[in-house]
């Protein structure tokens, strides 16, 4: 169990579940750095130990709740958020994880850009004045419907609608001094280091290969290469490399002067543009070209223990809200809601109403217990210290009816004739049932508040629920010969009532 002071920083009531893979023995004693303080580790792991039921998955093979720590993720497919195009996985790396089509994002607000066609009318020439017709030229430009930015600010227009993204990239590369600088450096070091390396490699191969024909061919290559080869001893004859601009001078004279004379905020590059475009300096605000739309991906999730697929999205980008396989814990684990919040006063005994909802199509039998009653003790984390509140379950064992899409009047008779509900006839257990309504049951628990004012009241409850799966067998077998399988699951639930007044 986790420290109640680190489960949540808010004072709002909640009901969280704990996955089986986040037990304290695994978290505390299987750490990569044992010398790290356990208190700091507890604070870091607290957000992963307990989660709402809506954030968890369920594995039918393991019959257990699965969180992000005990599941694996794998990319299912890539798609463009603008054109909804499914990009093949083989082409993703070649396109630098960007859309291969003409999908560009606005450099100002990062929204989608649309291609607008503009008509430019010009006066006719002197030769065509007799016709009295105007010469019409069509050109295209990029336009953002959100911030009203268009590519004409950069003198960037297109004659054709096709291959717009490639034209933008080529224009941007010509204007960037870094690309020219890199090409000059590449040619300089190729001449100084790479050519001597290849020549030495050919010489070593010529001495290894014994066949005379290969020996002659390699010798000819060596002789031909040595004619144009500059020896390494004469490498000083190469002219020294000179950059296009001095970096230190550029930084001190231009950027610093611009920072000192900065008057308005829009002259600086916005922060969201600095994150996406790390090659741009913060000052001054330089013209930024649009870039191709970054691809997004959808992932599938599987269990680490049995490799069962828990979440598999639809393979088409047009169905982003649909899944082929999705096993959320909401459809397999009973829900617990706080039906009534009491007034939390130190030293008083209050009654809390909890509503349990059964999402399964089978009747569920539940048993609730506290950490002390279940003898669940963890070294260095005693329940009496972290959870001082005493919990008394008025009805520790009860059942919740199954979920049905359509309810009939005969359903109440089936509840009375059920053999497994004989334990509910006990008066001591029945007095804790506050309400029953279809597939929901409201129970009451008595809690003795032991704590100082301002401290948080968190109730750890071990929920054990049992249900029977449908009887297995062929249709030819009789109902009596078919066997049903009994499934029992356990889950730790953390009910937070608030803070002590």
TrEMBL record:
Its main location: cytoplasm. This is Dynactin subunit 4. GO terms for cellular component: dynactin complex; stress fiber. Coiled coil: none annotated. Keywords: Acetylation, Coiled coil, Cytoplasm, Cytoskeleton, Isopeptide bond, Phosphoprotein, Ubl conjugation. Subunit of dynactin, a multiprotein complex part of a tripartite complex with dynein and a adapter, such as BICDL1, BICD2 or HOOK3. The dynactin complex is built around ACTR1A/ACTB filament and consists of an actin-related filament composed of a shoulder domain, a pointed end and a barbed end. Its length is defined by its flexible shoulder domain. The soulder is composed of 2 DCTN1 subunits, 4 DCTN2 and 2 DCTN3. The 4 DCNT2 (via N-terminus) bind the ACTR1A filament and act as molecular rulers to determine the length. The pointed end is important for binding dynein-dynactin cargo adapters. InterPro entries: DCTN4 (IPR008603). It is found in: Cytoplasm, Cytoskeleton, Microtubule organizing center, Centrosome; Cytoplasm, Cytoskeleton, Stress fiber; Cytoplasm, Myofibril. Pfam families: Dynactin_p62 (PF05502). Belongs to the dynactin subunit 4 family.
């Amino acid at each position: 169990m986790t420290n109640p002071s680190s489960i949540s920083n808010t004072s709002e009531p909640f009901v969280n579940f704990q996955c089986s893979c986040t037990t304290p023995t695994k978290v505390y004693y299987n750490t990569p750095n044992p010398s790290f303080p356990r208190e700091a580790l507890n604070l870091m792991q607290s957000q992963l130990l307990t989660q709402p039921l809506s954030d968890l998955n369920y594995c039918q093979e393991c019959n257990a709740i699965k969180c992000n720590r005990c599941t694996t993720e794998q990319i299912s497919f890539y798609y463009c958020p603008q054109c909804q195009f499914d990009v093949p996985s083989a082409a993703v790396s070649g396109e630098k994880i960007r859309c291969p089509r003409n999908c560009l994002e606005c450099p100002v607000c990062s929204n989608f850009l649309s291609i607008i066609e503009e008509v430019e009318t010009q006066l006719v020439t002197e030769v065509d004045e007799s016709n009295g017709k105007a010469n019409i030229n069509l050109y295209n430009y990029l336009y953002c419907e959100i911030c009203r930015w268009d590519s004409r600010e950069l003198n960037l227009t297109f004659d054709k609608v096709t291959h717009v993204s490639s034209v933008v990239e080529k224009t941007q590369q010509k204007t960037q001094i870094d690309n020219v600088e890199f090409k000059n450096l590449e040619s300089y070091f190729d001449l100084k280091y790479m050519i001597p390396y290849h020549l030495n490699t050919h010489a070593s191969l010529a001495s290894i290969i014994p066949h005379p024909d290969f020996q002659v061919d390699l010798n000819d290559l060596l002789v031909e290469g040595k004619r144009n080869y500059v020896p390494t001893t004469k490498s000083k004859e190469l002219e020294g490399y000179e950059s296009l601009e001095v970096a230190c001078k550029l930084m001190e004279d231009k950027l610093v002067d611009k920072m000192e004379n900065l008057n308005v905020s829009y002259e600086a590059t916005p922060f969201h543009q600095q994150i996406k475009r790390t090659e741009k300096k913060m000052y001054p605000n330089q013209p930024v070209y649009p870039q191709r739309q970054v691809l997004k991906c959808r992932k599938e999730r599987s269990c680490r223990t049995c490799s069962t697929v828990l979440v598999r999205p639809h393979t088409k980008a047009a169905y982003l809200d649909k899944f082929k396989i999705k096993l959320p814990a909401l459809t397999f684990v009973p829900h617990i809601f706080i039906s009534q919040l009491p007034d939390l006063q130190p030293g008083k005994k209050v009654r809390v109403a909890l509503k349990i909802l059964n999402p399964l199509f089978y009747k569920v039998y539940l048993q609730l217990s506290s950490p002390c009653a279940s003898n669940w003790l963890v070294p260095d984390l005693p329940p009496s210290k972290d959870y001082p509140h005493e919990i008394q379950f008025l009805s520790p064992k009860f059942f919740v009816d199954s979920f049905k899409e359509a309810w009939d009047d005969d359903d109440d008779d089936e509840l009375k004739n059920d053999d497994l509900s004989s334990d509910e006839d006990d008066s001591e257990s029945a007095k804790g049932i506050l309400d029953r309504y279809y597939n929901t049951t409201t129970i009451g628990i008595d809690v003795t508040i032991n704590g100082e004012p301002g401290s948080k009241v968190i109730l750890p409850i071990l929920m054990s629920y049992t249900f029977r799966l449908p009887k297995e067998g062929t249709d030819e077998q009789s109902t009596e010969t078919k066997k049903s399988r009994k499934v029992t699951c356990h889950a730790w639930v953390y009910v937070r009532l608030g803070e002590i007044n």
